[in-house]
Amino acid sequence: MYSIxxxxxxxxxxxxxxxxxxxxxxxxxxxMTSLACESRNPLNHQTLFMKKTILLAALIIIMINVKAQLxxxxxxxxxxxxxxxxxxxxxxxxxxxxxxxERLPCFTSAEEESPTAKCGGGVFYKDRDIYFYTGxxxxxxxxxxxxxxxxxxxxxxxxxxxxxxxxPKIKDVTWDAYATSYGLLILYYSSxxxxxKIRFSNQSAETIKLCE
Length: 212
Description:
Blueprint: H1 2-16, H2 22-38, H3 45-69, E1 80-82, E2 87-88, E3 91-92, H4 97-103, E4 109-111, E5 122-125, E6 130-133, E7 138-141, E8 148-149, H5 162-165, E9 170-171, E10 175-179, E11 184-189, E12 195-201
Parallel strand pairs: 1-8
Antiparallel strand pairs: 1-2, 2-3, 4-5, 5-6, 6-7, 7-12, 9-10, 10-11, 11-12
């Protein structure tokens, strides 16, 4: 019986590579064989039931721990936003939910496009402060965005964008909209007249539908 316990526990460790206490598994196996012997004695039924319950619980705990230890962490590549070309890395504005999730799998939430989806659906990265609204064809970047932007306009003064963007197509109290080669770029301003949000879309000023 010792050789069986030793062989099984050793194989278990080699296959999983996570359980350090091989003696613990061997003791469980030994307990199971002991139960088989005790089951022949009709006077031990209550004790036998309790031991079986304890051993079963121990095995469940082992399997849960192994599953948790084998769980991998989803990692995304660094994000670079090209505001002049309308892309995030190689992701274009018209990409689908599935295409974005495949390239940037570390999303915090996502919703497939449908008539009932909030804001038309999309893929969202709250921890990085960037949001892809696929159903409405625009991308939003917040002030805590964790990545690179091709032109340094986040946090910049309102009147400092002319050298990159020219004059705005539409001006409002809290935002400016610029025509681009791919569609539209909208810059939003704080009370101090500094950029605190960016949206860019392949839609025009007349057709874009924003989620507020």
